[in-house]
Amino acid sequence: MRWLSRRNGTLIISIVFGCCIIFLMNQSIHQLLTGNTVVTHVDYETSSKIGKAHSNRVNIVQDEEKADLYGKVRVLCWILTSPDNHKTKALAVKETWGKRCNVLLFMSSDADPVLPSVKLPVREGRNQLWGKTREAFRHIWNHYRDEADWFLKADDDTYVVVENLRYFLSPYNTSKALWFGHKYKAIVKSGYFSGGAGYVLSKEATRRFVEEGYFNALACRHDHEGAEDAEMGKCMQNLNVSAMDTRDSRGRGRFFPFVPEQHYFAGKITPSYWYWNNIYYAPTQGRECCSDSAISFHYVNPQQMYIYDYFLYQLRPFGMQADQRPSTPEPPPDLNLTAFPWFAPKEETTTITLSATNTTMADINVSNVSDVPSVSNVTEATDNKTKVVNKWKAVFG
Ligand SMILES: *[C@@H]1O[C@H](CO)[C@@H](O)[C@H](O)[C@H]1NC(C)=O
Ligand SMILES: *[C@@H]1O[C@H](CO)[C@@H](O)[C@H](O)[C@H]1NC(C)=O
Ligand SMILES: *[C@@H]1O[C@H](CO)[C@@H](O)[C@H](O)[C@H]1NC(C)=O
Ligand SMILES: *[C@@H]1O[C@H](CO)[C@@H](O)[C@H](O)[C@H]1NC(C)=O
Ligand SMILES: *[C@@H]1O[C@H](CO)[C@@H](O)[C@H](O)[C@H]1NC(C)=O
Ligand SMILES: *[C@@H]1O[C@H](CO)[C@@H](O)[C@H](O)[C@H]1NC(C)=O
Ligand SMILES: *[C@@H]1O[C@H](CO)[C@@H](O)[C@H](O)[C@H]1NC(C)=O
Ligand SMILES: *[C@@H]1O[C@H](CO)[C@@H](O)[C@H](O)[C@H]1NC(C)=O
Fold first, then answer.
1. For the segment 282-324, what is each residue's pLDDT rounded down to a tens digit?
2. 381 CA to middle of ligand 7, Å?
3. Ligand 6 nearest atom to the CA of residue 346, by list position
4. Mind telling me which residue stretches traverse the membrane in this protein (predicted)?
5. Ligand 3 center to residue 238 CA distance, Å?
């Protein structure tokens, strides 16, 4: 092979090397855009360098057909943060799960050119969170309404699996007035969602919030004070936005107001603990605590965020099967919003059996539980829910 001079050889090596770099860059750009691992079918048999020793197919996590929800279910994520957290918690969100959102915005009381953050016309402080939320949604509606289909609010210590959020939302119609999160039964009759677990509004819900709620003090609290999530709940109810069930078909939650260990090892379940007293649907524990398609956890500190990212997007058991989930998730048990809220048993218990879809009025005594919206006329409530049912029949067939 005399024709292959040293110079030509170098040239060929350079070209091959260059192509590799371009290929790798393409891969990482795709990853950056989709947040998904690109499936790579590397058939070692066809690669002469590696020879005949192995014939392995590397089949990672998701195939591209399922991963293409990025452009179909566009999610804007806005993070409720404050100047003290810009360089710590907010930065961790930006460097981990936040980059997988279609649009990522940090809402603060101060502008930060590095993060960057949006300076909202609010003061700082815990009792100003409702004001921040009002202003944040208004800013988003005015500037980004066409850039996303769904609008997620999360705290700077919420961790979100954005792919699972897209998967979960994919069968819903964003032109309907809907919102989703971890449901509580107190304060608001139809339930409201934990602020820390994060909640997501459809485009129609966002429109109502800004165009019908923002200036209407009768529907939505007009000043900046109040508990953010509860005020949001009242407002959404007044605007006829449905508080949907986000559990999977087996009744396991997807949005969580604590870190996974708190839900996995739930401890004693009694009505005396505010959480058990407020949770809307029956909780589950242990391996059944949380959906395989879980979406969010709260109280996740910055270091944990990087660890979650490592476990979810980098570490892989060798030979792991590709994703087996159906391309559309099974509907939740309470899609029709007809389930009665769950109440913690009076006796201390550490195990909860799944009965969420099967609670009847005989199991609970609503009139004996304080701080809970009363279901005064079951027939009427059921009739009201039937209207929702009819809306949703179309979605799931
Ligand atoms: C979504 O809802 C809107 C408003 O109700 C309706 O006009 C539209 O046809 C729905 N889209 C689908 C795909 O069902
Ligand atoms: C909500 O629904 C009720 C009853 O259907 C209706 O009277 C009210 O005008 C609706 N409110 C909004 C803001 O759509
Ligand atoms: C919702 O209600 C419809 C009609 O009442 C029923 O056929 C369907 O099974 C219900 N779906 C769920 C998930 O409860
Ligand atoms: C409720 O659950 C019990 C046992 O778990 C089952 O036998 C029964 O058929 C269920 N009832 C309904 C209405 O789903
Ligand atoms: C519920 O409790 C009230 C008193 O707290 C009682 O009068 C009522 O009979 C109870 N209802 C049922 C169905 O047990
Ligand atoms: C209502 O709850 C109170 C406090 O938990 C309890 O003492 C009382 O026996 C309950 N009444 C009924 C009817 O269950
Ligand atoms: C419950 O509502 C239905 C339908 O609106 C009505 O016919 C019935 O009288 C009501 N029952 C009570 C006890 O208020
Ligand atoms: C049913 O809906 C009507 C009007 O939308 C409302 O006035 C009534 O309070 C609702 N009833 C229940 C039990 O939710």
1. 999 888 999 999 999 999 999 999 999 999 999 999 988 888 8
2. 10
3. 5
4. 12-29
5. 25
Torsion of CA 246, 75, 134, 122, to 10 degrees: 130
* pLDDT value, residue 68: 84
Which ligand lies nearest to the CA atom of residue 358 in the structure? 4
Q: Give me the mean pLDDT over the 73-78 stretch.
A: 98
- pLDDT for 101 equals 97
The band of 42, judged by pLDDT with boundaries at 50, 70 and 90, is very low
How many Å lie between the centroid of ligand 4 and the Cα of residue 333? 13
Place 384 in a pLDDT band, splitting at 50, 70 and 90: low
Q: Which domains does the chain have, with CATH numbers?
A: 21-66 (no CATH), 68-313 (3.90.550)
Q: For ligand 7, is residue 380 a contact (CB within 6 Å)? A: yes
Q: Best substitution site from 389, 390, 391, 396 to test ligand 3's pocket, by max atoms within 8 Å of Cβ?
A: 389
- Ligand 1 atom nearest to CA at 394: 14
